[in-house]
Amino acid sequence: MKIGGQTKKFAVLGHPIGHTLSPVMHNAAIQALDWDAIYLAFDVHPDQLMNVLPAMQQMGFGGVNLTVPLKETAFKGLSRLDESARIMGAVNTVKFEPEGPKGYNTDGMGFLKAMEEAFGEGVAGKRMFVFGAGGAGRAVALAAAGEGVRSLALADVDIERCRRLAVELETQFMIAEIDIVTTPEAQLEAAQSADIIVQATPVGMKTSDPSPLPPQAFHEGQRAFDLVYMYPETAFMKAAKAGGARIANGLGMLLHQGAKAFEIWTGVQPPVQAMRAALEKEVYKK
Q1: What is the reported pTM?
Q2: CB-based contacts of 246: which residues, under 8 Å, 6+ apart?
C-alpha cells in the first residue's frame, strides 16, 4: 500500500478503539479494488466528537464509522440525518458531503442480514429478548420491530434508556408486547421464554467478562446472537451453547453494516467476500 497526497482517507472513531476490526475489512476491500485509499482508526472522546468531524471533513476524509460510545452523541450533534439514523436514534456512519457531515445508520440492516445468514431465518413473528438498549441494541430492537417481531423484552443497566426505547417501539411500530426486565430473575425468565436472545452490551469485549446470562437461561430451538465480534465465542455464546441454543457472534453484522457504509461513502458495491475473508482470518485465524 502506497500512501501519498492523493490517498483518500476513511476511518472509524470510538472510545476506546483498540478492539475494532473495521480497518481489517475496509482495507481488504480497498486492496481488492486496487484503490489509492486507506482506512484508519482513531480514539475520540465523546466530548470532542463534534469538533473532530468537521476537522476530518476539512482534511479530506471521505467518511467515518462510529462505534461505542459515539453513536448517540453524533445523532444529537449532527444537523443532517438520513432517515435510517432518525429511525434508529443513533449514527454509525458519517458521509462528508459539500453541505456538511450527514449521519446514517447501517446497524439495523446489518443485524437483520447477519441473522438470516447465520441461522437461515429472520425475526418476523418471533419473541426477542434484547440485552442492552444503547446505540446498537436500540438499532437491533427497532430493526426487528420493523420486520414484524412478535414481542420484545428489554434489559439495560439504565432503566430509563429501556423506557425511552419502549415508547419509540410502541409509537413507531405499534408493538403491543414490550416488557422491561430489571431483576436477574426477570431476565432469566425473559430469556427462557424468547425465541431469539441478543446480547447488545459491551460485556464480552474483554475475555475475562462473565456471561450476563447463565446456561439455564437457554434451551434448544433458541437463537443466541452476540454483537461482540472480536472472538469466535464469548462467554455469553458459550453459556447459550451449553444450554442448547444455536449461536452466532457479531462478525456478520460488522461485515454487512460495514459493506453498506462503504457503499454510502463511495457509491460502489464493495467486494464483500474479500471483506469477509479478512475478518475470518483475523478472528478465526483461517
Answers
A1: 0.91
A2: 119, 222, 223, 224
- What are the domain boundaries of the chain? 8-105+254-284, 108-249
- Can 71 be counted among the known catalytic residues? yes
Are the C-beta atoms of 116 and 110 separated by less than 8 Å?
no
Tens digits of residue pLDDT in 217-261: 999 999 999 999 889 999 999 999 999 999 999 999 999 999 999
Fold of 108-249: Rossmann fold (3.40.50)
CATH architecture of the domain with range 8-105+254-284: 3-Layer(aba) Sandwich (3.40)
Task: Write down the catalytic residue from 71, 102, 126, 260.
Answer: 71
Q: Provide the strand spans (E) within the chain.
A: 8-14, 37-43, 61-66, 93-97, 100-104, 127-131, 151-155, 178-180, 196-199, 223-226, 246-248
**What does the H/E/C string look like for 81-136?**
ECHHHHHHCCCCEEEEECCEEEEECCHHHHHHHHHHHHHCCCCCCCEEEEECCCHH
